[in-house]
Structures are given as C-alpha cells and as structure tokens.
Write a structure and sequence with these properties.
alpha/beta; Rossmann fold; 6-stranded parallel beta sheet; RecG/Mfd; ATP binding; DEAD/DEAH_box_helicase_dom; DNA helicase activity; P-loop_NTPase
C-alpha cells in the first residue's frame, strides 16, 4: 500500500494500492487502485483478482488508468469516461444500466435514432438496425461488434452535423436565381479607377456564379487585411441592388469603419444613394438602395426586405443578430480575416460556399511572438529600432482606465519616455479628438499611439512597424489576427508582440502559439477550430462541441475532412 505522496505505508486506512504485474509479453505493468484499504487487500491474497481499466503506453511503460477491482462477468462491458467537470463516468454507467433493465428501453431509443434522417440513412447503408446499434453500443456480444457500433455512432454525429449545416442554416429550399447580375457587375468593375487583383477577380467571379445560380446564397468570404475584400463585396452587392432594385446592406462592428465604407460607397455607387445607419446619424434617404451601418441597423426602421446582406468581421456579431436582417431568400456574405469556428465549419461541411482572397497587393513579413514582463527590455529595443527606421508603433490595451495595463496609465508612462511622440486613442474620446489622434499618428507627428481596440478595424495607416498587445490572452484569435493586419500595409517587415503577465498553459497558450505559426487567416481559423471546437451549427454557440443524438461522442476536425 502507498500513501497519497506515493510513499509505501503500513497504515491500514491507506486507500491506494500499487500493483506490478508481469505478463509474458508485458513486463512490469503498473496499476494503482484507489478507494481500497489494507484490510480489504489482505483478503484478496491467494485468490484471483480481476482488474478493469484502460491500458495506455506511456513514457514510463504500460499503465492502466481508471483501474478498479471488478467481478468477472465474461461479458464485454463498455466503460464511460463521462464529461470532465459535468458528469462522472460511473454515474453515466449506472444510468445506462438502469435504462437497459427497462423492458422496452432499447426499442424506445431505437425509435428516436430511426427518426433522425441522416442517421437512418447511414444505418441503412451499413445494414444495421437502430435497435442493434444501441444494443452493440451498450451491451455488445463481442469486442468487434462494440467497435463497429462505436464507429457508426461517430459517423452518425458527423452526418448530423453535415445535415444541419446544409439544411439548418437559415436557408430556405433551393430556388433558382430570379435574375442574372452579369451586366451590372461588369459595368461596376469597369467603372472603378483601380484594376482588381487576380485574387479579387477570382473571388468576385465565384460570388457571381453563386448569385446567378440560386436565391438566398450563403457565402463565407475569407480575406486577410489588405487583400481587398471590402471592394469585392461592395461590387457584388451593388450589382445585386441594381439588378433586383431591392435594397442591400453592409453591417460592420464600429462607427469608424461604417463611415469609411460609406464614403467608399458614395464615391463608387452614387446612383444607389448609400445611406449611413450609426448611432446619432440622421435617417438615410428613403430611396437608398445600399445601407451601411453598425449594430444600430438591428433596430432601424429603415431596414426593409433586404436582397443581400454583408456581415463584415462576422465574429463581432451573434447568430441571432445576423438572422434579424436576413430571410431565407436574402443573399448573405459573411466576410472575415479569420472566420469563427462555427462559420468555418459551415464552409467545410458544404453548408456555405467558401471563397478565399489569399494574396495581398504587396508582399509583407510579420514576425509574431509571445512576450512576458521578463522580455520587456527586448520590446523597448524593438520600439527604438522601428522609430529609427521611421516606422509607426501601436501599444494596445484591453482597458481604457485603471492602474497598470490600461490606455491612460500606459500613455502617461510612454509620454515620459518619448515626450511629444505619443498620442492616445480610445472609444470614450469625442469623435473630433479621435480624428485628431489618428491624424497625428498617420502624419508621423506622433508616431506612437496608445490605444484600445478602437484600432482593431478601420485604421488604415500604411507604415506601422510594431504593435504590442498587452494581456493578449484576453483577446480572441480572430481579434488578434485582425489587429496584426494593421501592420506593414504597404509591404515590408513588421513585428507583432503579444504581451502576457504570466506563463500560459493549455488552450490559451495553444491559441497564441497558433498566431506565431500561422500567417494567413484561414489556416489560423482552421487551427482555432481544432483547439476550440467547431460550434453548434444549429444554435447560438460560436465554438464548443456539437451535441447530436449520441451526446458522448467526441469529434475532431479530422472527422469531417476527407482522407487524401
């Protein structure tokens, strides 16, 4: 017997037994039994011991986990690992056994399984009945039968997710397109002063084909900052508005971005009378065919039946909010540099059309790293290096006020070290003060700006060489990548530093490390999906695990990607 520290003991109250068992092909198999005392173990001397557990190979050799003394039954007995922090495996096992003891339990469960279309089709393809599947899952006659049932249950959950993505994403039944946008789209492209990049042309053509194919298309437009996705979706919905004569809309996360896109739309498509819907703005023209706004659009009386809707930086909006502005036949384009796991899943599962903008107009190299307070001197060195090179620098903080890691406190400290070179920008400033700070930063009069997330989107300054994000672990992957996109807009090299105040562990470190390893948004989103899960495509969850008929199935992204 051993104590909790792993030391041998003669204490009869000790409740841990450590055994070493030698087999012909496995030497020194180590087993620990919890919940037994010395007296109970003494009674087992000289007799047969049956141990139940999970065998795993580790760096220390073979170990049996979750081991327990067991009665020999001669049956294959499934083990339930449970859900950490929610329900223990033993509790599930007792509940399953109680259900199996009910005379009609299997048949009742079989009816539920049979009523689920994607699962019923899958079982038919495998030649197995719903009742046999349930029986083989929870009371298999052989190991082979149990393993086959587990594989089918896993495939069933995948089938449910795919089915939900195709049929449960606010889409109506497939209907052919009521019009062709080609004439107006070609005219809109020719009217632009700039020439579209090859990637922009390819993306716009893919959108065109979808719009001409059916009503109510669903498109995930992925393009990193600087690839020109704004112009692509503006051209697309302008063609829709001119062809259908119905209004279209763009929703963005901030007033600053809404005003910038509105200015673009007015210059490019004056005939559509673009209207601006933001807090405090005058009501748009009643004849406006293109509306650009923020969350204010969700309660605006100006919003009627939309023919097309663009959600820019869709990780900022909930599923419910997006549904408020779109009906089944509304064309919906969700645009983002890093799509949230739920939307990325919809693209992978064939529910949405995935369109990528990969290459920007200029090559750039952004070095990303994680730093702790111990690395502060290295960060100061980067600041001086970029200032000497004539580059601009952003320090970004999660909080506006408060001691330490806040915009106002850091702004004061940096102003003491770099007098006259520091400006401050945050959401609580008056619009005129915001513009003044941005102008001083953009012109280089004050090349260092200390800011809140007001700079996340819409700050289009071409020569930012360094961004330092304080408490980076409090930001999401999509948000950090969006911030990183502010760097080196005119090409060249830049540095992105994610400051944390402690050593990170688990998923948090994996997420920040993913930013260091992935430069483009889509591969980063795929990695984020692997870490966080792909979300409940039927509900409001932006990440997490999909819960289908077989609720204890644990799936990975690899389950949904065809083998090459």
């Amino acid at each position: 017997m051993i104590d909790r520290s792993g030391n041998e003991t003669k204490n009869p109250k000790s409740d841990i037994a450590s055994l070493s068992i030698n087999f012909a092909d496995v030497k020194g198999l180590q087993i620990r039994l919890f919940g037994v005392n010395l007296d109970e173990m003494q009674k087992l001397r000289g007799g047969e011991i049956f141990i139940q557990g999970l065998l795993r190979m580790t760096g220390k050799g073979p170990l049996i986990f979750n081991s327990a003394l067991s009665d020999f039954t001669g049956r294959v007995e499934p083990q339930y690992s449970g859900v950490p922090g929610q329900v223990a495996g033993e509790k599930i096992q007792r509940a399953i056994q109680a259900a199996l003891d009910e005379p009609d339990a299997i048949e009742e469960a079989a009816k539920i399984v049979a009523s689920t279309q994607p699962i019923a089709e899958l079982l038919q393809a495998h030649g197995i009945t719903p009742s046999q599947l349930i029986r083989d899952l929870h009371a298999p006659s052989t190991l082979a039968a149990g393993n086959t049932a587990l594989a089918i249950a896993r495939k069933s959950v995948v089938a449910e997710v795919r089915h939900a993505a195709k049929n449960g994403t606010e889409q109506g039944p497939d209907e052919p397109a009521r019009y062709n946008v080609d004439t107006h789209l070609i005219a809109a492209v020719k009217a632009q002063k700039e020439t579209l990049s090859p990637d922009q042309r390819k993306a716009l053509n893919a959108i065109r084909l979808e719009l001409n194919r059916k009503s109510g298309v669903r498109i995930l437009l992925n393009g990193d900052v600087g690839t020109g996705k704004t112009l692509v979706f503006l051209l697309a919905i302008a063609a829709v508005a001119r062809t259908s004569r119905n209004p279209v809309a763009v929703v963005v996360p901030s007033d600053l971005v809404a005003r910038q896109i509105h200015d673009q739309a007015q210059a490019r498509f004056p005939d559509l009378k673009p209207g601006l819907i933001v807090s405090g703005a005058a009501a748009p023209d009643t004849h406006s065919k293109m509306l650009i706004g923020t969350q204010a659009m969700f309660s605006s009386p100006a919003i009627k039946k939309l023919e097309a809707l663009v959600i820019d930086e869709q990780h900022k909006f909930s599923v419910e909010q997006r549904q408020m502005l779109a009906h089944a036949q509304t064309h919906v384009i969700e645009a983002s540099a890093t799509p949230i796991p739920r939307s990325l899943a919809l693209a992978i599962f064939d529910g949405w059309k995935q369109i990528k903008l990969i290459n920007g107009p200029v090559p750039k190299q952004i070095r990303s790293c994680i730093a702790t307070p111990a690395n502060r001197s290295g960060v100061v060195g980067l600041v001086r290096q970029h200032l000497k090179a004539g580059k601009k620098i952003i320090f970004l903080y999660h909080r506006v006020t408060g001691a330490g890691a806040s915009v106002k406190d850091a702004g004061q400290r940096l102003s003491e070290h770099f007098p006259g070179l520091v400006s401050i920008l945050h959401g609580k400033l008056k619009p005129t003060d915001k513009q003044k700070a941005l102008t001083a930063f953009a012109t280089g009069e004050q090349p260092i700006i200390v800011a809140s997330t007001a700079v996340e989107v819409g700050v289009d300054v071409p020569d930012i060489g360094l961004m330092v994000v304080s408490n980076a672990d409090r930001f999401g992957v999509a948000q950090l990548h969006q911030l990183r996109g502010r760097l080196a807009r005119n090409g060249g090299a830049a540095d992105f530093v994610m400051m944390v105040d402690k050593e990170l562990k688990g998923d948090t470190r994996e997420r920040l490390q993913a930013l260091c390893c992935h430069a483009d948004g889509f591969s980063l989103a795929e990695r984020d999906m692997e870490i966080r899960g792909f979300g409940d495509v039927l509900g409001e969850f932006q990440s997490g695990k999909f819960i289908g008929t077989f609720k204890l199935s644990r799936l990975d992204v690899a389950d949904f990607i065809p083998e090459k």
